[in-house]
Design brief:
The chain is α/β, with parallel strands linked by helices and 365 residues long. The protein has seven helices and 21 strands.
């Protein structure tokens, strides 16, 4: 016979919570695809135990209406929640009696919901107890107090005639695998949220090369396309927010300021929530170079002129040219420059500024 429902859950409405739980478990349970051994015989079970009918009406009459009777007839099994309340329910007793009258006592699966001080035999509806007494049938209920999950698998094995131990072990393995998969997914999801959703806070400290030279007024900092301007005397930017997904690569950082060599680099943010970044800012040659040409009165290049700046002295070449590059420790905004050559008047300038295009004329004595 083809049944519309795999099972009909009969229960007292005071046991609604258990009925909903059992219906959800039965309809959501997916049987193993591999065959199951029952008493040395291989059986291939159904894939799903659905649909499962659960009456949601609340009738006081003990007489079943026509629609409910059809649903009972269309159900292969009657899963009976046996409790103190259902044992006293004429409605539940009527459903049980109807199933017995159809000659399907063997397809009734009692699930016991114990109550303190109430014997198990008194949890069964009167119709079931009477049939058992008259026909010498043992009443065997599945005790939900021994564990809901275990009771659920016992219901499944009774429905399908499968071996409980084998199906229970499979169920436990599958459950452990599900828990492991959910845990792994949760860990990965948390790591992804941490890694890619939460921004990185970047603190940038600029370390200008120490010297006695003038500094510009501002530092121009660019981090991952965002621009910042900070005073040279307070070269620090805190809490620059970088999107979390940028952890996958490197972010571009550039820094520039007057009298310093520009910095262009890329850095990895790492996987923390905050990153400290130090940028060394080196001096350029703004104050290092003294270079130019020395001429005679006739504007002819003058060779052999001794040019001195700080402790450095060079001589002009045949084109009258000279070049002095001072180390950082000797650099100043203004220097004393001295030009001497035999037969020519000495030039001494106390406040010459660095330049690569200096011009001097030496006059004859």
């Amino acid at each position: 016979m083809n049944y519309k429902y795999f099972a009909f859950i009969s229960y007292s409405h005071s046991d609604m919570r258990f009925a909903r739980w059992l219906q959800g478990k039965l309809e959501g349970y997916k049987l193993p695809t591999r065959p199951v051994r029952v008493n040395n015989e291989i059986k291939h079970g159904c894939r799903y135990l659905q649909p499962v009918f659960r009456d949601q009406t609340d009738m006081n009459s003990g007489v079943l209406d026509e629609e409910l009777q059809k649903n009972l007839e269309s159900s292969k099994y009657l899963v009976l929640l046996c409790s103190k309340s259902s044992a006293a329910s004429t409605w539940v007793n009527g459903e049980v009696q109807s199933f017995i009258d159809m000659g399907r006592f063997a397809n009734i699966i009692p699930v016991l919901i114990p109550s303190p001080g109430v014997p198990e035999t008194e949890l069964f509806p009167a119709a079931l107890r009477e049939y058992s007494r008259m026909h010498g049938k043992e009443l065997r209920g599945i005790n939900i107090a021994e564990g809901r999950e275990k009771a659920f698998i016992q219901v499944v094995t009774r429905m399908l005639g499968l071996d409980f131990d084998e199906l229970w072990q499979r169920y436990r393995r599958a459950r452990r695998q599900r828990i492991a998969a959910i845990t792994a997914f949760s860990v990965v999801a948390a790591l992804c949220a941490y890694t890619f959703a939460l921004p990185v806070k970047l603190d940038v400290n600029v370390l200008p090369e120490p010297s006695q030279l003038p500094v510009g007024e501002e530092l121009h900092l660019t981090v991952d396309g965002a621009e910042y301007t900070v005073p040279v005397n307070e070269p620090h930017v805190a809490g620059i927010s970088v999107p979390g997904y940028r952890r996958l690569g490197r972010i571009d950082v550039s820094l520039s300021s007057q009298f310093f060599t520009s910095v262009d680099t890329s850095v990895a943010t790492g996987f923390g929530l905050r990153r400290q970044l130090a940028l060394d800012l080196r001096r350029d040659d703004s104050f290092a170079l003294y270079a130019g040409v020395v001429y005679t009165d006739d504007m002819e290049p003058l060779e052999g002129v001794a040019v001195s700046v700080a402790d450095c002295t060079v001589a002009t070449d045949s084109d009258g040219r000279f070049a002095i590059t001072l180390p950082l420790a000797e650099q100043r905004a203004e220097q004393c420059i001295t030009l001497t050559r035999s037969g020519y008047r000495t030039i001494v300038r106390e406040d010459e500024s660095p330049s690569g295009d200096l011009r001097f004329i030496l006059h004859k004595d």
